[in-house]
Amino acid sequence: MQTDKLYSTLFRSTFFLSMFTFGGGYVIVPLMEKKFVNELKWISEDEMLNLIAIGQSAPGPIAVNTSILVGYRMAGFKGAMVTVLGTILPPLGIMTVLAYIYLAVRDNALVNNVLLGMQAGVAAIIVNVVYNMAKRVVKQKKVIPVLVMVASLIAVIGLQVNILWILLFSAVTGGLMTIVDLKRRVHKEEAQ
Amino acid sequence: MILLELFLSFFQIGLFSFGGGYAALPLIEQELIHAQGWITSQQFIDILTLSEMTPGPIAINAATFSGNQIAGILGGIVATVGVTLPSVIIVQLLAYVYFKYKNLTMVQGVIQGVRPAVVALIASAGVTIFMTAMFGHSNWPVAIDEINWVSILIFAVGLLFMRRFKASPIQIILISGLAGGLIYSFI
Q1: What would the pLDDT profile of B56-77 be if each residue is shown by its tens digit?
Q2: What is the pLDDT of residues B122-142, one digit of tens each?
Q3: Do the beta carbons of residue B19 and residue B115 sit within 8 Å?
């Protein structure tokens, strides 16, 4: 494939996905999968699942991470730069315009009423998101993740501990659990 | 220099938001509202509302919008680049390691450990958002007569729609905006 064509397809695909998809990463990523696996057939289903797993293991927006991985997979660093630009340019443009409209109309009485209503709607969305996420943690039926969740909640709301300490503490816990888990697996294999 | 501070703040937000767009919310709250005092909790909700209403990743939307609020068009660009840069670096490092060793067990184990903490952090941002929506501010203590009953009603109906009828966030925002526009304008 010609490199020019590769870059332009990478850019156009990620640009349009970011431009027309509402709802953030959890909606964009499946569409990205459809585009690159089913339509373009550039990446196999298995490899795409691995890329998505890597994207979720890194910090930052999942849609951005996954697009960087697709670009990197297809054309290395340059490919990654092309896809990340494709993904961030649409929100950058749209939100810049919106920021000025917001400043101009924020004090209008009707706009204020609409936004006041939306605040309650957003509160409901966040409560729903947190409920679903917490349910997933509890459903694992493991003690330590639930303890980490409760301890973090107390630390951040009750004691107002800096978020970075909580992340560091939970990362160390996760690391230790993985080491214990790996050791256990080795023991099991030796016993067999 | 405001642009440099803005860049560093958003770099930090991008670097430590594990688990997608919502994970950036508690960091945005801690950094922009409490540490820097650049935005109020009301603006924080407005940013989230507009980010939900527009296409694209929520964290990018929030960065561009708050950057613009704080330091104009350049601010928007700087914040967006800042929040994206950690991804650009770390994701490619991880990809390199993965393609070389085909193994990310340790990295994924650490992320598994962070996830429950992230839920708690998002919940704490949720408390700020809930309080601001219901009482008009997020400072303890709150008084009973500060409660906005219309907000409680919209909140309850919105939650019901999502749990019972699987309504999407964008539908909830549009319906609650319509409800707010009608109820507040005619009462």
Answers
A1: 787 888 899 889 988 999 999 9
A2: 888 888 888 888 887 777 777
A3: yes
Which residues span the domain enclosing B7? 2-103
- Residue B47 falls within a domain, yes or no? yes
Q: Tell me, yes or no, if A87 comes closer than 8 A to chain B by beta carbon.
A: yes
Give φ, ψ of B20 to 5 degrees: 90, -175
For the stretch A144-159, pLDDT in tens is 888 988 999 998 888 8
Place of tokens 């004090």: A107
- Chain B nearest CA to A149, separation (Å): 5
Instruction: Return d(Cα B160, Cα A49) in angstroms, integer.
Output: 33
* Total domain count, chain B: 1
Mutation target for B interface from A43, A126, A186: give the one with most B CBs within 10 A: A126
Residue of A nearest to B150 (CA): A117
Which member of B114, B151, B162 has the closest CB to residue A171? B114
The pLDDT score that the predictor gives to residue A1 is 58
Q: Is residue B158 part of a domain?
A: no
Q: What is the pLDDT of residue A83?
A: 94
Please tell me the distance from the alpha carbon of residue B65 to that of residue A111, in angstroms, as a whole number: 18
Instruction: Give every CB contact of residue A76 below 8 A, 6+ residues apart in sequence.
Output: none
- B151 occurs within a structural domain: no
Closest CA to B65 of A61, A60, A96: A96
Please report the DSSP string for chain B in residue order: -HHHHHHHHHHHHHHH-BSSGGGHHHHHIIIIIIIS--S-HHHHHHHHHHHHHSSS-HHHHHHHHHHHHHHHHHHHHHHHHHHHHHHHHHHHHHHHHHHHHS--HHHHHHHHHHHHHHHHHHHHHHHHHHHHHHHSS-PSP--GGG--HHHHHHHHHHHHHHHHH---HHHHHHHHHHHHHHHHHH-
Q: What is the pLDDT of residues A61-99, one digit of tens each?
A: 888 999 999 999 898 899 999 999 999 999 999 999 998
Query: Which is nearest to B154 in space by CA: B122, B186, B184?
Result: B184
B31 falls within a domain: yes
